[in-house]
Amino acid sequence: MAQSNGRKSIFITGAASGMGLETARLFAGQGWFVGGYDVNGPGIDALRAELGPDKGLFEVLDVTDRSAYAAALDRFGQATGGHLDILFNNAGIGRGGPFAEQDFDDILAVVNVNLVGVLNGIRLALDLLKATPGSLCFSTSSSSAIFGAAGIAVYSATKHAVKGLTEALSVEFAPLGIRVADALPGLIDTPILPREWAEAAPAEGMWRLIPPVEVAKVVWRAYTEDRVHWYVPEELFAYDAEITADPVGTRNRILAGRPS
């Protein structure tokens, strides 16, 4: 088993592609001990081969499997001497379609991975986070947690839940010495983004296509900068304020087919 040898450490779910992969690369490049976890076995093997086994632990993990998650964190804690500087709850799936027509098994799968998986990670990693001065619990929410997106209603609901959980735990965990924050990415060029959405993205503006490394950079900044929500791109902050002020107007503009 690889050992951290006193390095700072990060535990990343959904590490085999997209934002998780870029985060693993960035932190490994900065000398951190990386825990990379994903259901995608070949992707994890590729990550281990790319970074090198001395850079961390790289394992297959289904975040909905609580006992497997606990075992993975136990091995990680053994390798780091019982410390965890950043827990990055990033694993997520996107299954969409009109809510009234969506297969209920797909609905439950989205809820279990995108919300229950986050709950599993935070509860199970809590002792490691408490044992680490300056630790950060960081999760991937979404711009669809600003205003729910039609066609991905359940996905949007899970990301609203992650956003609300982040806000509540940022208060609850403060006395424990744990900071809590999330990222609200817009259109990120990852496998979860439908290709038709990527192809239709404008060249400029807040709905432009963003490379996943930009989210990795936000995770890096979040370790030293105190924010609750990180918007990627930053323009989404103003959009959030607009939605809060006028949700009915936002709904009506969407129904009329006018861009926000």
Q: Termini, distance in Å? A: 50 Å
CATH class: Alpha Beta
Largest sheet: 7 strands, parallel
Overall morphology: globular
Strand order of the largest sheet: 3-2-1-4-5-6-7
Summarize the helix and strand pattern as letters.
EHEHEHEHEHEHHEHH
| Secondary structure tally, helices | 9
Mean pLDDT: 94
Number of strands: 7
Q: In percent, how much strand structure appears in the residues?
A: 5-15%
Find the structural class using helix and strand composition: alpha/beta
Radius of gyration: 18 Å
CATH topology: Rossmann fold
**CATH homologous superfamily?**
NAD(P)-binding Rossmann-like Domain
DSSP helix fraction: 40-55%
**Spans with pLDDT under 50 lasting ≥5 residues?**
none
Describe this structure in words.
The protein has 260 residues and is of the alpha/beta class. It has one domain (9-255): NAD(P)-binding Rossmann-like Domain (Rossmann fold), CATH 3.40.50.720. Helices cover 46% and strands 14% of the residues. It is built from 9 helices and 7 strands. The chain has helices at 18-29, 41-51, 66-80, 104-130, 153-172, 195-200, 213-222, 236-245, 247-255, and strands at 9-13, 33-38, 56-60, 86-89, 136-140, 179-185, 229-232. A 7-stranded parallel β-sheet has the order 3-2-1-4-5-6-7, sandwiched between helices. Helix 1 (18-29) crosses helix 7. It is globular and about 55 Å long. The model has no long low-confidence stretch (mean pLDDT 94).
Element layout with pairings:
Elements: E1 9-13, H1 18-29, E2 33-38, H2 41-51, E3 56-60, H3 66-80, E4 86-89, H4 104-130, E5 136-140, H5 153-172, E6 179-185, H6 195-200, H7 213-222, E7 229-232, H8 236-245, H9 247-255
Parallel strand pairs: 1-2, 1-4, 2-3, 4-5, 5-6, 6-7
